[in-house]
Amino acid sequence: MNSVVKQLGTPHQLGYVFADINEAVDTFSGIYQFEKTMRFDFTIEQHWVHGKHHPISLDIFIGVADGTEYELICPLSDGPHKWFLDQYGGGLQHIGYNVSDYDQYAQILTKAGMTVLMNADCDVFEPGASEPDHHLVAAYFEKPSMGNLLIEIAARQPLR
Questions:
Q1: How many domains does the chain have?
Q2: pTM greater than 0.90
Q3: For 14-25, what is each residue's pLDDT tens digit?
């Protein structure tokens, strides 16, 4: 796995799942001094779980501290985030990497024995915007030997 980590580089994001996002935001804001924050509902039709179409809706808070994104997620619909919450009660769910080429990094993770749990391919709108900010191709990868921890890769192409 070390060669995979070298190819992915430094994680950009730590993703947590909680039932009460307001409590999580208060807790994390007391621990970290966020330089930037954003909160939004992420509802997406172009979403698949184990290759099957599975729209999803999430309440997301992102706080950035010292170059790391802390993504706090509260599931608003059925799917992997809710399943994680139901099974583990919340906590750290994924480590995220921003990548330049989705296919290249998906192959790296697949060669390391990981499989896609869920993936998305969509335009992303910043809160209140009428035009999309960027196009996102992303996936959570899983491997039984890693327990409940997922690896996320996300390729974002600016549209403005």
A1: 1
A2: yes
A3: 999 999 999 999
